[in-house]
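Feature request disguised as a bug: please show the residue count (173) next to Acyltransferase in colanic acid biosynthesis in the output. Example input:
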Amino acid sequence: MRFVFLYIVIKFISKLPFHTLRVLLIRALGANIGTSVGLYRGFEIRSPMKLHIGNSSIIGHDCILDARKGLNIGSNVNISSQAIIWTLHHDVQSSDFKEVGAPVVIEDYVWICSRAIILPGVKIGKGAVVASGAVVASNVEAYSIVGGIPAKKIGIRSANLDYDLGKNIAPII
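Example output, currently without the count:
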């Protein structure tokens, strides 16, 4: 029953008109969210009390953030619209469809493009880019660009990163 109530509350919060208000209310549900974070409309968060988002990160429209096993998102991370991050799923070999999962870690300056999917237990290194539509099932090295299904290294990103994604987001106390 608590899960259903929390789901309805988060759906309501995700429709509110201001980043500041959405962030404050998600914090009230137990999420650890830094300053100057943008949460765009339509997001879904599972287990907000196990979610950590660093400073100046942006979560795009209609993203799913599954923090049931722990989700740590660094600073200056851009998670584009409709990306999905899972920390829990089912064991396909299990006779009783047992749940399995592990925390996901996304380090600073990562860019997860639209409609990418990150699976449980993955660590995405600093400055990495996940291309649109990629399915990431294993760790991604720092400054790598990955794409495809399953995601494979397709390039290298410059390590000279020093931007602040939160500079256009209203400050949050």
